Hints:
The protein has one helix at about 1-20; strands at about 25-30, 35, 40, 45-55, 60-65, 70, 75-80, 90-95, 100-105. The protein is α+β, with helices and mostly antiparallel strands. The strands form 2 sheets. Strands 3-9-8-5-6 form a 5-stranded mixed beta sheet, with no helix packed on it. Strands 2-1-4-7 form a 4-stranded mixed beta sheet, with no helix packed on it.
Amino acid sequence: xxxxxxxxxxxxxxxxxxxxxxxxxxxxxxxxxxxxxxxxxxxxxxxxxxxxxxxxxxxxxxxxxxxxxxxxxxxxxxxxxxxxxxxxxxxxxxxxxxxxxxxxxxxx
Length: 108
């Protein structure tokens, strides 16, 4: 009986640890576009956005709805931590090329 209780406790601990981890989303900036430009995530989940500027030119990765902006030199990578999102749509864009660099995160 003690072994079963121990296994249940370990299982619950592992499950809670997995839930506490951030969901990692990789976004590439290339040819003045985002890849992917539409990202669907579970609502109420913390996110880790890893953004890579694959172009040689600098770009500003920005999102008013997520609360961040960062100028990224060509060939660099940046990580952004996003608090759990309520259901809805959150926009991000490239400040230097706003006509072609539009993206959306949909929390559902």
